[in-house]
Design goal:
With 95 residues, this protein is mostly helical. It has a domain at 17-69. 29% of the residues lie in helices and 4% in strands. The protein is built from three helices and two strands, in the order βααβα. The protein has a two-stranded antiparallel sheet. The protein is elongated. The termini are far apart.
Length: 95
């Protein structure tokens, strides 16, 4: 068994997590202090803000925002290109 501690994930956080907790998970413990300044910039791009009642960010919304930002779990929109023309594929009867 390894003596190294397991890195926390978003699943390990409470429903509303502090910026310190989120920073440690997203950036790793060595860069967690950078999260506050990064988060301010990302809020302008739609990152969920700190909820004033719970004094934390809603973790499922943070995860969803990051997934959407990187296109994870989103199917490309279907293109409608008109009616199908099956005439070239119809079999011809040989006499």
């Amino acid at each position: 068994m390894s003596g190294r501690a397991r890195q926390a994930t978003l699943d390990d956080l409470p429903l509303y997590a502090t910026d310190e907790q989120i920073g440690a998970v997203i950036l790793g413990p060595g860069r967690a202090k950078e999260w506050c300044s990064i988060a301010l910039g990302l809020e302008r791009k739609g990152l969920p803000t700190v909820d004033p009642i719970h004094r934390g960010r809603f973790v499922p919304a943070v995860r969803q925002w990051y997934y959407a930002r990187h296109g994870v779990g989103q199917a490309p929109p279907e293109k409608i290109d008109g009616a199908e023309d099956w005439s070239p594929w119809k079999s011809r009867r040989q006499a």
